[in-house]
Amino acid sequence: MAQTNAGQRTEIAQIPGLVDLQVNGYQGIDFSGASLTEEEFVQACRELLEAGATAFLPTLITSPTEVYERNLPILANVLSREEFQGRVLGVHLEGPFISTEDGARGAHSIQWVRKPDPNYLQELVRWSQGTIRLLTIAADQEGAADLSRAARSHGIAVSLGHHLANEQDLERLVLVGAKALTHLGNGVPALLSRHQNPVWAGLANDDLAAMIIADGHHLPPSLLKTIVRTKGPGRCIVVSDASPLAGLPPGAYWSMGADVVLREDGKLFNPATGYMAGSSATILGCANHVAGLGLAGLNELSQMFFYNPLRLIGLSPHQVHVAKRIFFDAKARRVFQE
Q1: pTM score, two decimals?
Q2: What is the DSSP string of 207-265?
Q3: Mean pLDDT confidence for 139-149
Q4: Residues ≥6 apart with Cβ < 8 Å to 201
Q5: What whole-number distance in Å separates Cα of residue 302 and Cα of residue 254?
Q6: 62 and which of 95, 185, 207, 213 could share a cystine (Cβ 3.0–4.6 Å)?
Q7: Helix orientation angle between 167-174 and 144-153, rounded to the nearest 10 degrees
Q8: Residue 241 belongs to domain spanning
Q9: Is 241 an annotated catalytic residue?
Q10: Are 116 and 144 in contact (CB under 8 A)?
Q11: Which of 20, 30, 140, 241 does the annotation list as catalytic?
């Protein structure tokens, strides 16, 4: 549509929606928390949907068995409610089948990391009542290919990340159904081999879509631009990686088993290691960051924030309930909802 303001004509067009495949919690509610209640999860879902997400996947990070056995049924019960149909689309498990290496493991606790185990995945599927739609695994672990096959047999999309995988590792997993890379450019050590590293390998693999955290802190603009230009908008999926601290004021907090700091500018990190501790952004904030950098217009935003994430998890746009309309102001490079 066209909107006139103070004699100036501004082109504003509607985006189909904003679908976030990686949300760890919101406003102090941790989806992987050992004391999560159904009421808290419902509250977080409502607030996330109010804050700009058209639909999303609640994400559980690497956790002890007791948390999976307790929290996955809670999530499944809420997902079955009519209120969240077409809005809370399933569960993303980020781990526990990831690398134990520092840097590659990110903020995940090493004590809960597991080697690829299809039998344990079967238990996770059972506890989730079949609601798992996306699984992040490390491509460089022995047994990763068998785990990917098992996930695909359950209708779960497989994404690769939190690893030190090389080109051959990625190619092997593509052959057994892996479709994406989890937060490409993150979940790796601060120092990498100049040419042989998982970032270059991921960029070079044309069969894997790139999930990217566009919160303004996880990736510098130059790398964000490089990923979008290399992969193309048709193979990029923007996620928020929202931490349970997203939506809270700046300050010092305890999160994911460590002391973390949320700065005024929104950066959330572990001061002891320097590594990021998730994001404080919403998916609407990520859309504004991408638009503000001039990296995407209407069509590109629609692909990276709506069509591509749905394609990865095997859903059609018709299966999403759009409660609030999302618009893109091309002149102001701004995304907003009504």
Answers
A1: 0.96
A2: TSEEEEE-SSSSS-HHHHHHHHHHH-GGGEEEE--B-TTTTSPSEEEEETTEEEEE-TT
A3: 98
A4: 165, 166, 167, 169, 170
A5: 36
A6: 95
A7: 30
A8: 17-337
A9: yes
A10: yes
A11: 241
